[in-house]
Amino acid sequence: MTYMGKPYYPIWLDNLADDVTLEAAAMDGTAHGAEAVRFILGKAREQYEHQEFTYAGPCGESGYVEDYSSSVRGVPTYVVVLVTFNTDGQTQHVVVNHRPRSAMLNFSRVMLETFADTPHAKHWKGTP
């Protein structure tokens, strides 16, 4: 995974607030807490066959945005991630949007399989 010719790692992932939240079009409800959010995002990143970044960087005064394309089990997927920082500079809120809808539903099914029989499965139980 590279961005502008350099290896890419979301540094905001290493600075999560204790009460960070995660929301996504592919999940039901909101994940709360640094441990849960880090675990879910780590597993989500494992599903991408590659990532080709269009942009990764600052957004407004207290935000960060990632815009990239990928494939999940061969399905082309486009993703926008919006990260909001708190006043201490920690990641406070993460919103992930997969598109198109068919790719989002595919990703959601993959995540349900990934988290089956774990407490995190509740975020994907409503997946068709």
Report on this structure.
The protein is an alpha+beta fold and 128 residues long. It has one domain (2-121): Nuclear Transport Factor 2, Chain: A (Roll). It contains two helices and eight strands; from the N terminus they run E-E-E-E-H-E-E-E-E-H. The strands form two sheets. The protein has a six-stranded mixed sheet. It has a two-stranded antiparallel ribbon with strand order 1-2. It is globular, with a radius of gyration of 14 Å.
At CATH level 2, the architecture is Roll
| Percent of sequence in beta strands | 35-45%
Apparent shape: globular
Listing every helix as H and every strand as E from the N terminus to the C terminus, the arrangement reads: EEEEHEEEEH
* CATH secondary-structure class: Alpha Beta
- Our count of helices gives 2
Evaluate the radius of gyration: 14 Å
Q: First CA to last CA: what distance?
A: 30 Å
The count of strands amounts to 8
Structural class: alpha+beta
Largest sheet: 6 strands, mixed
CATH topology: Nuclear Transport Factor 2, Chain: A
- Poorly predicted sequence stretches spanning 5 or more consecutive residues: none
Q: How many separate structural domains?
A: 1
Mean pLDDT: 92
Helix content: 10-25%
Strand order of the largest sheet: 4-3-8-7-6-5
